[in-house]
Amino acid sequence: MSDLATKGVTVSLGGRKVLDDVDFGAKRGDVVGLIGPNGAGKTTLLRVLSGLMAPNQGTVTLEGIELESIPRASRSRRITYLPADAPVHWPLRVDRLVALGRLPYTGLWRGLDDIDTEMTESAMARTDVLDLSDRVISSLSSGERARVLIARALAVEPEVLLADEPVSSLDPYHQLQVMELLQDVATDNRIVVAVLHDLTLAARFCDRIVLIDDGCIAHHGLPEAVLTSDIVRGVYGVETITASTSAGDFVVPWRRIDSVDQSS
Amino acid sequence: MVTLSVVVLVLFIASLATGHVSLPLIKTLMAAFGDDPGMLGLILVEIRLPRALLAIIVGGSLGLAGAALQGLLRNPLADPGVIGVSSSAGLGAVLVIYFGIAAEWELAVPIAAMTGAAIAVALLLGLAGRDAGPLTLILAGVAVNAFAGALISLALNLAPSPYAVFEAVFWLLGSLADRGFTHVWISLPLTLVGWILLATVARPLNALSLGDDVARSLGFNLSRVRGQIVLGAACCVGAGVAVSGAIGFVGLVVPHLLRPFVGHEPGRLLIASGLGGAALLLAADMTARLLPVMHELRLGVVTALIGAPFFLHLIVRTRRALI
């Protein structure tokens, strides 16, 4: 049984069905890669899972309990959402920004305590941004910035981490670092759902892949079952190269199908 | 924060000692609270004290509301004027001056101004709706502002006598002269309500630095936060404008000035900006009293005269950071 699940979720935005009767499930301990073409509904599904958006039909449950009936305060500690290209509106210091992840644990009369500081620092250590502690966010490179924002999400110590394109602005070194980090978070008996565009990374690091196309789950399952050349060709319209090496299997998108049509 | 509190206290005492009649402060204080206050004691307690208290009340409100609104709208150009509260309160006051009610009843102006502010908030929340984003709120505020401004112009246009126009315009320029403890008591309760509403949004304001989605995922009910800030700003600024008239630039400049000192955190800026607003208005009011001109300068004129060039300087200096 899935720990985080949707049943029959349908979302319409401006008269268009963005998600249509989606049954999604994720288990604790898994990194779930949410993949699909642009505009397929990945971000919408992530927002529905986080409770930021209520579906027009269907339900979202965490451990069998409907998301809507979980009090706001406890939900904010259990689920955290890391948007893609999130703005930071003021030039905040990095350590103060990461500490914002501890806000669900504070109250009007309760500020940050030692545990919060500890969690903030450990989150920063895990994303390799401790050195940047006293820098100002607006002075960082986009890769450093992305890692700081991931640290903010980790500081919540959530059961469910929902990350929208967490590696899109990173160099290969830090892409691998963040993917390892997501795996590491998940092995801690948490659920990680990440929207990814890099099929190679998705195939390597995800325990399960959910492929969304045009508002529906087209395929789901183990990476090797979903990321086959037939399925990728059908959904993305690209030819892939797959290969087995001694280090493992990999899949690389290679050529657009219509470009092949034109040349022949 | 401590430094700011000290500055406010020093300015408060200085404000008591400043005026046309020079007072030996300690001696007068003793006399004022003794059996026979005497002329000087009366000046201190009945004229200077309420004036200094009102400067703190109004200045603190403007600073606090400015900081809260800039944090909410994440727009450094926001100030209490942007949600239309100041101009609507002004409209209320102009109307009672226009109909001559103000001359008959001293409290008519403050009460009408507060009513105007209340109507503005109702309109704003109605126009912007429950789930309004920052831009919708700003646009709705601009609309309310423009409409109130148009009605003020209309009232001045149709005014029965030049005297009424004169009085209304003068009131709109803002001043703390000739205010007594009645004014303090009438503005204090609503001001305090507003201060409490605004001082308790520090956490959601900090969360909002990361955008609406993250703030909501951190557990904050944004429509409630928006309502609380708009209502809080309306309460304290409305109550302030009601007794002082419109005073510009404090709510805009003070948060800007203090932001670097609190690490740009919108939550920590709140109280700092409130204290800064109080300090600035005390200083501006003393300047207005001390300048050797025939008619005492209006407070709104002084703050704008100091504020505008200073603001320009600030923009030039921080041009890179703003973009």
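qc> The two ends of chain B are 28 Å apart (CA to CA).
qc> done
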